[in-house]
Amino acid sequence: MSNYRIRTFEEYEAAHKKSVENPEAFWGEIAEHFSWHKKWDKVLDWNFDEPKIEWFKNAELNITENCLDRHLKERGNKLALIWESNDPKEKFVRLTYRELHTQVCKMANVLRSNGIKKGDRVCIYLPMIPELAISVLACARIGAIHSVIFAGFSANAIADRVNDAQAKMVITSDGLNRGAKQIPTKRVVDEALEKCTSVETVLVAERLGWAPNMVEGRDKWLGEEMDKAHKDCVPEIMNAEDPLFILYTSGSTGKPKGVVHTCGGYMVYADYSFRNVFQYEESDVYWCTADVGWITGHTYIVYGPLLAGATTLMFEGVPSYPDNGRFWQVVDKHSVNIFYTAPTAIRALMAGDEDDVLSYSLDSLKTLGSVGEPINEEAWHWYNSMVGKEQCPIVDTWWQTETGGIMISPLAGITKTKPSFATLPLPGIQPVLLDAEGNEIKENEQEGLLCIKHPWPGILRTTWGDHERCKNTYFSAFKGMYFTGDGAKRDSEGNYRIIGRVDDVINVSGHRFGTAEIENAINTYKGVTESAVVGFPHDIKGQGIYAYVIYSGDNTDPKAIRDGIVQKIVENIGKIAKPEVIQLVPGLPKTRSGKIMRRILRKIAEGDISSLGDTSTLLDPEVVDLIIEEAPHVKQKS
Ligand code: WT7
Is-contact 46 52, C-beta < 8 A? Predict the structure, then answer.
């Protein structure tokens, strides 16, 4: 029996038991499966108070040797990456492990010859093209810390991230395809860099054949640099606890924070969780539809599958282009065996024509996955019957940017699934439910705040440049616990069902936004005195954004005001954060101490005014009635 690859339910139970009784022995044994330049002195040193978490102390490695070099002997000619274009008529790209290795080494040499050294930060703002995966790995090869910025973010959002990390380089493209649209990524970067001073070089990949403005001495075509680059690249030897990457994510306060993951622990956890959750077999073709701009793409398009020697598919397009059958066409075209997507995509396709699915065979599929938000039962059943034909286990995987990898999920075909439940923790993961006072709820059939009481190798180590913020956000709410920000329920068999965020974070189509972040953008519109943003249930997106805005400027046209506000959100964050509803209100419900009563605003946004509770103690009780009178969802329901 091996804890590294679990094959039966009994093995799962035994592995979990061992991981709780002796975490160091458990993870030490798993870590033996990787190639290290130097082994660790100690598997784990930790306290959640500072927090200080060190896995595989003083070990040395390079993650790309584990993703690429060590596979060359046995899998050199195996496909590592399949790339499928936005345009179904464009030829796909296939790279074997040997070819990907060469590309990564060349690109790593390009980075080095442009002055990038170990520890430097490189921002990557690229569409879903092979250069994105290659850039990420090239950074890791030379020990540069990558910070991938989702290519839907605005110039201001890029500038914030470049400045926060003091990045020396940005890698982008002339433009990108998204369904029928084209977007000038390089132009967005140029606008961002007007606000940044740390960037010395911009590498530009060619995707659309456009001729963007190239700043003399700063901007270079990636293709030309690659042509000059040598194909061998000695990897940088990294300490297990050296940072591997920064990934910005939204929280309930302030600007997005840079979650930091490190080389050794992240590697072990990405590989371990990938193999076991998806029960990956050597000949499988695996496809995760996420974007590498999010953690799902980092761990389960790039690192996890490559560490496991898998064939990973990367898709440039969207589920609805050229029609709603695109996902299924790609599944058939490349004989995909494992398919991992988000509930929002499932719900969107479910709302479309059944023939868009029924026209495809989908016979290659054997495992389905879901990630990013709770999957409702209706979507689960549609996915199970229409896509999986009731033959494919669905792994509903709960995790977060901060956790590095999947935390609570079925292991495909090994542990039981249950619609809308993420089910059981992976070996090594110790979830607990707490009540509001921080007492552990030991009984089943209870609901509480989801915390994790022991570190796992993929846990975040800090937030870039601000360790206090990491401590305050995740480790201060309850002593000795990592607090997830989610509420969860445990059933009689110990299965977890994730209910959703309990903090001021909204999850729109699986993307995280802080209400404060959106309010800050709204407040930059001239004439806005105050705003309050809440989430509300949305049929396709999971949650939608609802903004209450007090406007006291000179403009008298409500539509123009709303358009102006949207424009500010698009400028400061990106189109992905556009609210569904902007309601102009005369005031906001506040307590006597001036705190906005978001609970009331959430109810009104839902269209449910039956249980607003006692509003008589508010500073200005009438304001609630005035808001209700104009609230679109309340009107719809009455
Ligand atoms: C938040 C994390 C995990 C990668 C994608 C999102 C929600 C995530 C599930 C799930 C219910 C889920 C949680 C979590 N979430 N997966 N299977 N069931 N909720 O990463 O942007 O860091 O967001 O997404 O609320 O806290 P993220």
Answer: yes
Task: Decide if 319 contacts 290 (C-beta within 8 A).
Answer: no
Neighbours of 13 (CB within 10 A): 14
- Mutational test site, ligand 1, from 399, 409, 463, 482, max ligand atoms within 8 Å of CB: 399
pLDDT for res 604: 96
410 Cα–ligand 1 center, Å: 15
CA–CA separation, 115 and 134 (whole Å): 18
Which of 403, 387, 332 is closest to 354 using CA atoms?
A: 387
> How far is the C-alpha of 12 from the C-alpha of 215, rounded, in Å?
56
pTM of the model: 0.96
Q: Residue whose CA is closest, atom 21 of ligand 1?
A: 512
Domain segments of the chain: what residues? Answer: 9-28+63-475, 509-637
Residue length of the chain: 638
List beta partners, residue 287: 313, 339
C-alpha 482/C-alpha 470 separation (Å) is 10
pLDDT at 1: 58
Instruction: Compute CA distances 199 → 121, 122, 196, whole Å.
Output: 10, 9, 7
Token digits of residue 49: 């108070």
CB 279 within 8 A of CB 367: yes
CATH class of 9-28+63-475: alpha beta
Average pLDDT along the chain? 97
Strand partners, 507: 512
Continuous segment of H or E residues that includes residue 243: strand 243-249
Q: Which CATH superfamily is domain 509-637 in?
A: ANL, C-terminal domain (3.30.300.30)
Kindly give, in sequence order, each residue whose CB lies less than 8 Å from that of residue 587, ignoring residues fewer than 6 positions away: 550, 620, 623, 626
